[in-house]
Amino acid sequence: MNDAHASTFSDSSVFVGIDVSKKKLDVCLLAGKSKQLCSFDNTIGGVASLIDRLRAHPVRLIVLEATGRYERRCGVELMTHGFEVAIVNPRQPRDFAKCQNLLAKTDTIDAFILASFARVIGPRPSSLPSANQLLLDEMVARRRQVVQMHAQEDNRLQQAFEKKIQASIKRMMRLLDQQREDLDREIATLIDRDDDWRSKLELLKTVPGVGDVTASTLVAELPELGRLNRQEIAKLVGLAPMNHDSGTMRGQRHIQGGRSSVRCVLYMATLTARTFNPLIKQMADRLTRAGKPFKVVMTACMRKLLTILNTMARTGEKWRTPCPAIQTT
């Protein structure tokens, strides 16, 4: 553990920002005008040392960014030990930093920004995921990795000239196929054992274009589905259009950040929905006739599909055509 600018805190509330990387946790503690900076290894032992350090202070809120699973061990352990932890979209602290004119970027500055964000904005604390939720999330992520490895091996097969190498690649592809099938069975079994997951999965699959992979990914990696409004869920996934306007200039809108794994399955589901889902097909046809580029059409349709799924998860209403409650969301 390394310390910098250490000072003694009073009894006032302490706000903590943790900048998480693969190997390190850079930590900033803020209380009144006092600040402490320290760092820990992103390991089981390092997180335990961090928890011991934080227990010495009246910590009110801890903020971490969602950084591609590196934050998971730290966030879950902190929540398990009773700390209020908010895991936020990285875009939120970045926008906050711009407003505060904090444009420099180092790990310690990022930790300070996160602690300041915790104190000024006070984001809603995240919920502690259950052991089964963590397992399901990991299994769905592993399935995605296996599929990606299979695609990589397939690309190598196209380039392999020697039959011996081709045979080796084919053996690996068969092994990956078997692993994917095993994971599919384990994911299905895990979801089937939970009444809420099972009912949500079956509900989502009533939407034309949404199959097992999309539905199970949403159950595992988007547990907020049905709990947020359509603007919040779009921002969380990274499908909310971002403005780039200045004065009289109106810049091009684009999407940014969010959960890329969820966007990937929504993209594939939307490709199917453009043919078989009447609401998505109608929107895609209208935007195409208006001359919108394919990417713009797909993004709008993905956002519409997400809105439909979010409404259904909130109301418990299955897909039907026409469905006024869903069409007007």
Structure description:
There is one protein chain. The protein is α/β, with parallel strands linked by helices and 329 residues long. It has 3 domains: 2-120, YqgF/RNase H-like domain (Nucleotidyltransferase, domain 5); 130-193; 206-329, no CATH class. The chain is built from 13 helices and 8 strands. The protein has a 6-stranded mixed β-sheet. A two-stranded antiparallel ribbon has the order 7-8. A hairpin with a 2-residue loop joins strand 3 (24-31) and strand 4 (34-41). Helix 10 packs across helix 12 (294-315). The longest helix is centred in the middle third of the chain and has 30 residues, at 163-192. The relative contact order is 0.08. Residues 243-251 have low confidence and may be disordered.
Helicity level, as a percent range?
A: 55-70%
Task: Please state the oligomeric state of the protein chains shown.
Answer: single chain
Order of helical and strand elements: EEEEHEHEHHHHHHHEEHHHH
Q: Return the structural class.
A: alpha/beta
- What percentage of amino acids are in beta strands? 5-15%
Number of helices: 13
Tally of strands: 8
The residue ranges in which pLDDT falls below 50 over 5 or more consecutive positions are 243-251
Mass-distribution shape: globular
Largest beta-sheet details: 6 strands, mixed
> Can you list the strand order of the major beta sheet?
1-4-3-2-5-6
Q: Give the mean pLDDT.
A: 87
Number of domains: 3
Gap between N and C termini: 50 Å
- Which value, in Å, is the CA radius of gyration? 23 Å
